[in-house]
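Subgroup meeting minutes
Present: P.N., E.W., G.H.
Scribe: E.W.

1. P.N. recapped why we're keeping a running log of single-chain structure predictions: easier to compare across weeks, and new members can see raw inputs and outputs side by side.
2. G.H. added today's entry (217 aa).
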Amino acid sequence: MKKIIFAFFLLGSILTFAGTKEEIEKLQNDLLLLQKKYEALSADILNLSKKIEMIENKLDALQRSSQTADLRVDLENLKIEVEKLNSAISEMKTAQSYSPPKTVGEEQISSSINASSDDTPEKLYQNAYSDFIQGKYQIALDEFQKFTEIYPEHPLAENCHYWIGECYYGNKEYLKAKDSFEKVMQKYPKGGKYYSAKLKLALVHYNLGEKELAKKM
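Output recorded in log:
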């Protein structure tokens, strides 16, 4: 009887040990699998870190390159174009609302250059500005210059001098544009076009290769 009991005990121990061994092997396999996954994730993280570092280096290099300056210039050009569009309505309203009577001197000058009676200062300005918006820089230039010759003291004369510079800039005549914008800043230091002229003068310097002067503006 004792031998039978011992045999059952021994069999149970063997089965228990076998079950424990299988569980241990399963745990070991699970740990091995987790370790492999961890190593794979670590490799992915390392690769991502390298890519991020590479991108950061490229960004740093880009910031130090001339491409950044070009992008800034493009951005400023876009800002100026937006400014032109935003100011178009106010420019037209200003021209329409201001209609003072002609002085004797203006009438004499107007007659001397054969200006028609319909060419009021406001209409002449509107026509010039409209041609500028349409990209007809040379036509607009002649009209703005005509305005400043006939009405040099008119409140819109400052605007005309500024747009003369813009016309030269549009035609890529940067030296003439430079003179025009400088004239606006000197003649109208407290005028509404002072800062626009200053910004555009910086772009003129850049296009002339005078990058240091452009940065100082």
